[in-house]
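Regression test case RT-17, inverse folding.

Input:
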């Protein structure tokens, strides 16, 4: 069968690859119909292994070792995925270069836009800083004015955190809101009465 060789004395010798397996003339061929046979010994992969080792002595038909059409399609698809043709590889490289170039242009545009906005951002920051300083200055002046008024009203200096001082500040805030409301109403009344007075003067 091509699996065994004979020595000068006409005795059958075991091939080197069979010595480790301690197999001679009767190779082990699993019974696929037997329930005790392991599942991995019933696979086509194991059949290929047996045929590769024992040849036709394994009792396996070589025609059955070829992959089916579906298996062949899967093998071709896997081969194309891991080892694509040169044309596909070049196309993939070109696509990656285009994507990288697009990202670079987008980043450059973003930097240019930010640089164009920089003067306005600096101006806005300086404006906010000036306004914050002005607000702090006004708050400090108001605090000093309230402390002076509390000293004048009560005859001694008050702790700005004391309930008496906070109550005085609340009363002053209410009075200021009331004055602003009256002033707003007066301006509104004057703006309404002013157009009515103009035609009366022109008719006289």
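Golden output:
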């Amino acid at each position: 069968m091509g699996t065994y060789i004979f020595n000068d004395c006409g005795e059958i010798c075991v091939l080197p690859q069979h010595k480790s397996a301690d197999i001679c003339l009767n190779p082990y061929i699993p019974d696929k119909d037997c329930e005790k046979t392991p599942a991995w010994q019933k696979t086509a992969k194991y059949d290929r292994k047996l045929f590769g080792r024992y040849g036709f002595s394994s009792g396996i038909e070589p025609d059955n070792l070829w992959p089916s059409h579906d298996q062949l399609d899967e093998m071709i698809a896997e081969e194309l995925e891991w080892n694509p043709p040169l044309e596909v590889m070049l196309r993939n490289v070109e696509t990656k270069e285009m994507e990288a170039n697009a990202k670079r242009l987008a980043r450059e545009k973003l930097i240019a836009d930010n640089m164009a906005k920089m003067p306005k951002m600096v101006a806005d920051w300086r404006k906010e800083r000036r306004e914050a300083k002005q607000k702090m200055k006004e708050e400090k002046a108001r605090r000093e004015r309230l402390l002076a008024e509390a000293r004048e009203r009560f005859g001694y200096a008050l702790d700005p955190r004391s309930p008496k001082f906070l109550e005085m500040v609340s009363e002053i805030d209410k009075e200021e809101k009331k004055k602003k409301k009256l002033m707003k109403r007066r301006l509104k009344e004057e703006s309404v009465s002013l157009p009515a007075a103009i035609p009366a003067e022109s008719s006289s």
